[in-house]
Every structure is written in structure tokens, then in C-alpha cells.
Design a protein that fits this description.
The chain is α/β, with parallel strands linked by helices. The protein is 22% helix and 26% strand. It has one domain: Vaccinia Virus protein VP39 (Rossmann fold, 3-Layer(aba) Sandwich). The radius of gyration is 16 Å and the shape is globular.
Length: 208
């Protein structure tokens, strides 16, 4: 098996610390990458959570386009596009440890899961952060998750997730409590480039 790192070690890895897939992306890029018109989905009073938000430029843009929306961006690196405007909160924290103070109508993660160790653990937590009709969408490549027991997509679909293999996107509608029959072992930061062409992190699990 590959050399596996725990979350603390992984967050110090140059692959994770130097990630640049989402550093300067504007709001239109979320439509291209996730197929979601964020400004069309959120309404005044709605809550949007963006995990691995990078510079947060898209969040600031959305707050200006949709006044009254509440937006939270979480990223491991404090590299935000200036001070947050009204309605936008930036949180510098590990997405593997951070916990929200309420539910969200929209949760997104653009190319951020490529750098998360316990990808499935984050998916199960995100499922409980949605409102009843909330939407979660993220870039996700099941081939970077190793279980030793074949394809992962069936397990995810049984839990309620929708996986688009062609576009490599995972989504979920509506809050739910998710439990997956897998235990996290650690992550490999030497997996090399993934489908984006950028080096990513492979996650390893064992069935329970």
C-alpha cells in the first residue's frame, strides 16, 4: 500500500498547501465547473457555503449580485480577495474539522475534494449540513478513493448521492444522515496528477 498520511501531516503537504485549482475563480466559473448558476439558485435570506473557497472572489461577487444572501467560505489557506463584504464570512480552517452553526441552502466545493484526505467523511458531514431542500454539488473523481472492493459509486448512490461519471461531479439534494460502510485509513499525497492535470490526493479506506 502507498505511504499514507493522517490529516495533520496531509495539511502540511506541498500538494495541499500549494493547490491552485480554485484560487481566482469568479462566479461564472462555478457554472462551468459544477453546472450550477449560483446567483440563480440563492435568494435573499438564503445561505451558501463554499468549501475550499480559494480567494473567495466568487463569493464577494455573489454578495453584490444577490443582496441579502448569507455566504460562508472555508479554506485552509488565508488567501482571500480582500476583506469580506456584507453578507460574506471567510473562515480559515480545515474542512475536515470545521463545523457550521446552521444549515445551508447551497453547498459547493469546486475542485477542493481533490486535496481532502477523508473525502467520504466530508461527504457524510456535508449531507447533514443541508436544509430540507438544499443542494450540494462538488467535483469528485471516484477513482481517487480506494476501498479494495471495486467501484465506490454504488455505495454512494445507495446513500442518496448522485454521481455524474462523465463530468466527475457528485451532488445531493436535501438533508440526510449518511453512514458509509467504510473506515478511513489515510491519504497518499504522491498519487500524481488527476484528471485536472494537477497533482491530487488519493484516499484509502477499508470496508467495515
Amino acid at each position: 500500500m502507498a505511504r499514507l498520511l493522517g490529516d495533520r501531516e496531509l495539511e502540511s503537504s506541498s500538494v495541499v498547501a500549494n493547490r491552485d485549482m480554485n484560487r481566482e475563480r469568479g462566479l461564472a466559473g462555478y457554472g462551468r465547473e459544477l453546472g450550477v448558476d449560483v446567483a440563480g439558485v440563492v435568494r435573499p435570506g438564503a445561505r451558501w457555503l463554499d468549501l475550499c473557497c480559494g480567494s473567495g472572489a466568487a463569493l464577494v461577487e455573489c454578495a453584490r449580485v444577490v443582496p441579502g444572501v448569507s455566504i460562508t467560505g472555508v479554506d485552509l489557506v488565508d488567501f482571500y480577495a480582500g476583506p469580506a463584504v456584507g453578507g460574506v464570512e471567510f473562515v480559515t480552517a480545515s474542512v475536515g474539522e470545521w463545523e457550521p452553526d446552521g444549515a445551508f441552502d447551497l453547498i459547493t466545493c469546486v475542485h477542493g475534494l481533490h486535496y481532502v484526505g477523508d473525502k467520504l467523511g466530508l461527504l457524510t458531514r456535508v449531507a447533514s449540513w443541508l436544509t430540507g431542500g438544499g443542494l450540494f454539488v462538488a467535483n469528485f473523481d471516484w477513482r481517487t478513493v480506494h476501498t479494495g472492493h471495486g467501484r465506490l459509486t454504488g455505495v454512494l448512490r445507495e446513500a442518496g448521492f448522485v454521481y455524474d461519471a462523465r463530468r466527475r461531479r457528485i451532488s445531493l439534494t436535501g438533508r440526510r444522515d449518511v453512514s458509509l460502510p467504510l473506515r478511513y485509513l489515510g491519504a497518499d499525497d504522491r498519487a500524481g496528477p488527476n484528471y485536472t492535470g494537477q497533482p491530487g490526493v488519493d484516499s484509502h479506506y477499508v470496508r467495515v
